User: Fold these one by one.
Assistant:
Number 1:
Amino acid sequence: MDVGESGNADYFDDLTFWWLFFGMFYQQLKKRHRAIRYNSILTGDDRVMEFLHGHWERIFNRTRMSRDCFVWLSSILEQTGRLTPSRAVSVEEQLMIFLFVVGHGASNRNAQETWQRSGSTISKYFGIVLEAIFNMSGEYIRAPNMNNVHHTIRYNNRFYPYFQGCVGAIDGTHVSACVGAGWEGSAHDARVLEHAISEPQNSFPFPPPGKYYLVDSGYANKGYFLAPYWGTNYHLRDCRRLGGDRKKEQFNYRHASLRNAIERTFGIWKKRFPILRSMHQFPLDKQAMIPVACAVLHNFIRMDLASVAQDHIAGDEDDDDASSEDDDVAAVPDRVDVGESSSQVNIPHDMDMGAFRDYVRDCIHEGTSG
């Protein structure tokens, strides 16, 4: 190699070096001047402490429960090993992120901004807490004692003894979902119920003999399900204008009033957790877990008197659908059982639901005209 060729090689080596140098310098300069995305002076953990030690209404509005209830729940989750703190996110922050999303229907982006965490972190801990609370369902969601008569029936002469065999109500109280092919839009109520009772893995709580559920006109009057009369006023605002077949309309009015009283609990539940009214596009299995987890939280909150009291004090400015049509029917508290039922208007073993409905209809008419 002659001197000229050697000089050219050194020149290109120097040029390459300087290009690499300036390239690296430029990248470092970009990093230095890049805007920091999560630059709040308060970290997520700082915000948790701010809520825990601030005014009671702030943590209630954020989590839908009192401060003591929140601390109690987070302690249970940590002590039972369902939640564990990570290096960067405490159990309290994990739980508060979850409660913020379900209690406000907040999007992942809103949660990122509120808690100064990345979208993947929000999603990760939402899923972890969801599974933890879902796994508490066996402790906090239990079928009522179906051999007892609920006090709303037992101590109201509009319902007792006519509906003393009623153990619950089923109708189109829907929780929104983003579903795939086969269940698009609003699947018919009867189809959903048929799927629930026909699949053994669903563990549908069938009532004992002589007991039944109230259902609306979207279901068949058979088996364990007592439906109103077709072609007769049914909704409360219509039943108040009695006319036509008075016996059937009297039955439908009492039936609708009782079903409405029972289902006010669902209105309160959906008001407390707006995500149930506008489900996010989670995977379907996660969507199925969310209503169960919210039911666990609802029952847990009901065990805390402070949360119940603060719920009444704070009110809710942004929700308006927890109330029902029939304001003269009291709301039904959770898990209240009273003494054994008598056997005045029970379903005889040899009578189908059609004949039993006529029998209750006649009893109601005799009771109001006597």
Number 2:
Amino acid sequence: MASEEHTVVGIASELPVEEAETAVLVEDSKNFHRNSLPLAEDPEDEGPFAPDVFRSECWYEDGNIVLIAECVAFRVHRGLLAQHSTIFHDLFSVPQPCTDASELIEGCPVVHLSDTSDDVERLLRALYDGPSAFKYGERLSFSSIAPLLELAHKYNIEALRDDMVLRMRTVFCHQFSVFKSSAEFIYSPEGYTERILRSTALEIVPSRDAIRSVELIRLIGETMMLPMAFYLCTLLPAATLISGSKLPNGRMAYLSPGDLAHCMEARVVLALRAYKARERISLFRGTETCVSSNAHGCGPGIESVFGSPRATRDVDNVSTHALTDWGKRIKRMAWLCKSCRTGLVEENNACQRHVWEKLPEDLGLVVPGWNAAVETAT
């Protein structure tokens, strides 16, 4: 990722530093809404920034530093920033030259940030409000935590970064047992148009979040999370993988050429694995201890429910979702005898486990420890 520079006026000349979506917030705080008024009403008092810069309501009268992102200014406390961020701490520790009055806003030195104003608002809200900024115990959207994690990484805000990473690990997990116990795929509320991955802590909408997740995971260096992020990308149409996805802040997220190639190739492999998994389940003929009232046992009923993909030859609707969990459908099959239901659930788990073990390889990734971390599902 290209290094960025923040122009600092009155602090130092230049120092290099490295949408459900309101769910991340307890509620929109009035202290963080943008104010449409310029910094000063008297043109003679506006200073060099006021004609183009608007004051946010994150503007503390006792603040002693002004952050400017895009055209929005935030008057905050340098002590708070320095306490949470080693980057700001080091920045503020640099001895300061005498500052010309024209380089101040209401007597405060100015730091220009290259981040979007919306993302800076989210970050400041998290720092000022602390735990109350989040609905702990409730599911957050990936699009709401991604900007926080990116800026926490950029400015080395360790506690915030760690919290966001823990949330991500509940869905971008590397252990099969964790995947089975804490994460699940559901269909989008809008209909059977998209599968959403969620845990009790986080929700991922692939069309909006998958490509962004690869970018972010590579940024923070969490290699163990990459296979699930890549897997979500393989669920997207090829056109989306190539053209990228638009983020809530207006930026486009793209896969690198190498990652794009891996995902395109993996779509074929995973489609074949999904085909084989469904065929294996549809051909399950029941257990030796089957006590079905049907003379032919539970087997024919199982095939009629799942259908043999080989028999239907439905190649136009081949899915790349090789981790499909048929457990809920199996539970709804009330006519199954207890023995065959248990056997079919075990067959379903075995299909998923096999896909899981092969996932990094199928995606063209080298993830040390992935296979060693795989646990036998109970």
Number 3:
Amino acid sequence: MTHNDIGHINNLDRTQQEALKTCWIALTNAICEETSITIDEIVGSNEGDALFRSIGYDDPDVLILRWLRARKWDINAAVQQLIDTLKWRKDSAVDNLLLKGENELNSNEIQTNKSYYMGYDKFNRPINYIHVRQHIKDQFPLEQTEKFGIFSVETGRKLLKESNETGTVVIDMNGFGMNNMDYSLVKYFLHLLENFYPESLGLALIIHAPLIFYSCWAIIKHWLDPIIQNKIHFLRNNEDLFEFIHPSNIPKCLNGNHPDFQFIQPTIEEKTMYKAFRTDKQGRKIARANHRRAARNYLKVTLKWANGDENEDLFEERKEVKEQLRDTFEQFVPYIHTQTCYHRNGMINEPIFNISYENLCRRNELNIVQF
């Protein structure tokens, strides 16, 4: 799905536009009620920081609309799920996971290459390939595999291009046996996608499913929301993938032209950069303060808009504060995120890491103290 589809940011009817406004008001009120704070205190609180960090590079309206569509425009249900998501992000330490990145994951599990991103489908959606035979139930602690999955979804958000809002999953069942069937993990990830990352799946392609899997599928399909079920397609052979994905974006192990995925270890330079950002307390403090200031401005202007302010300059003002929010988040990224394998193989282009590191080195060389 893209920004231009019905019910998305560039294609809202009057009722949906009003629902978006009401949702912003209801969400801020709910945060205040949950935490006993005022609206002016939301940004800087745990819940406010979780909200605006989860927005990341996105247009905040796009995030809110995900939950509205997922809850069929039931504003109360959407707000409750947003509140539950903020709590879940805190309880699951998602921000800490993003702070430490691949260092927080089981390196042996990463290098099984059971799950990875490679290229884009014909609708320009990033593709997550999953080779089920590489997952052995109980080979790794469940908590570690759950972290791997969360980090993968968060990484996938940085792979979204232009106006696309969803990704594609290719599930390769070749070599599947019952030792690969992990019902608890499947249930966990379905809950994750439906509740905490709604409207993020565009298409799921299951290929090479053996007869033995269909008895498993008879159980799994009852856990699926009908909307997700409609996005799942069973394919008979590798060539059927060509209908959805160009061979240049299919790995050779599935008869494509792309070299099979290999995890790339971080370089010494990257490790040095990581350490430099983690020890630059002053730089982090400044970047966080700037991002919070931008978030406060965005929230202030958005609530004016949501409450019916018809000032003709408000639309442009809201556009400006949205861009400021994104820009300050980008400056904050090196202090709260890490580079990944996809930065190393060129799939993610996030130059702010190098730009900020060069600036940090210059400051250190000149021994400039920032206030």
Number 4:
Amino acid sequence: MSNFTLVDPKGWDCDLQSVYSAYMGHFQLHNVVWYERSWSVFFESFEEFLTFSWPAITVTDAWTGRAHVVVRMSSVGAFLKMLKTRFGETLPVVENILRITPFETSQRHLRTISDYATYKKVFSTLPAIALAAQKVRVRNGEPKAIRELWASRDKIFLALDFEWSERNSASCIEWGYAAVRCGHLDTAGAWPPDPELNYRRGHYIVAEYADKVLNRHKPSFPWAYAFGESQMVPKAKLPQMIHSIISSLMSPDSETITNTLVLVAHGTTGDLRRLEEMKTKLPHNLLILDTMAFERQLYSTGERGAMQEPSGRPREQGSSLSLTALLQSLGVDTQRVLHNAGNAAYMCLLGLQMLLDPETKVPTPRTPNGMSAMMRGAGRSPAMAPAIAFMPSPPVFPQMGMMPGGSPIMFPMGMGSTPDVFPDPSVNGKVSYFPNHRSISDHRLTPPGGSFNGRMPGRQRVSSTNDVNEMGEQLAAMNLKSRTIGSHSLTPPHSR
């Protein structure tokens, strides 16, 4: 290993085998009787061509994603110079050599290939190199790489989301997932997927924390799952449940072939950390798709059209959208509470499909306006805020970010609120805009004539630890029938 050398891949753009192939084509096109020339020994076979001793590295093409054994154009010039020096004949530089643009930017291992055995050994590493590059391209949100995944119709896209306690970041209080098995649906002739019929989904509430651990700053709504029935699971069994669902969808690990499973999340850092904390091992060949990065790349390349910030300024390049803002820009009604792990996972997968296929049918939630989910007793946490159940829907925006007539869309403003701004560490401190979630205390009932100090007349003062319990009192005062989650939870059909 004394001759181990690293080089910058910039400038290494000529596929080695294509150099030999290009000259054989040149001889054929120009009727060159090469086999009668003194230098013909180098063109008798590709094996003989390699005896020149070619400095080479392995890279992937930035456009196609294919891996290549490449050399510099200067090495081709050195080969031609050698022929002229040794045999006194000049060969031209041909134009039909396969030229690529290296995707990799880090230094690469330089090897000298002088025989076919060495070339074969280097060539055998190309699938692993292509896999490593594909993982980076997909995670960075490269549109072409992600579209190719969807178009292959053989992957399983699994979106997941966690909700955890604000007081103790180690306490997971909810987990939800949504999956679409593209290969299964394509084989069954059900393509493109219909989210309402073809998404396998689930929502799990940790039993020990149900109605006991409630978030205040960003209220969570565990009983507001809009696409099925929530299931209770013991805290000790949640990691096992998650591992079982993931392992039922993924293929074996491999160093050369991508996994069947593609993990989807809107901002992947937090969810991956939670999986790691739960000792859930992900295979090496798993592709991770960040819908936030994907949308950002689409906007940067102009594929989402002109967009504006709430202030009226053009949206800044490199800025990111929250899941709520992304869905509203796609024309999806965001009344569904996204601070529910099941809803967030489902809508994340829906947002991905709509970015890939704008004609995707938007599903109808199983609990219209959240009314049946809200029918809970005063001692239980509310299913959702009144803004979800009683206020009108926010504006719906056309797909792909354009209003009729080509005018730019505004970022969704929510229910009269102003946008929050938070930094996105993955894009050099750029910011992301998303509508505020109104706290439950903002929805207190007020007399028709104006405001008042304290509580409504006639309301009993009940000690409560936060605004969520206060909301439970309001629901009890409205005489809503209590609804208990039974043990017979709805299990997603096996056909999904």
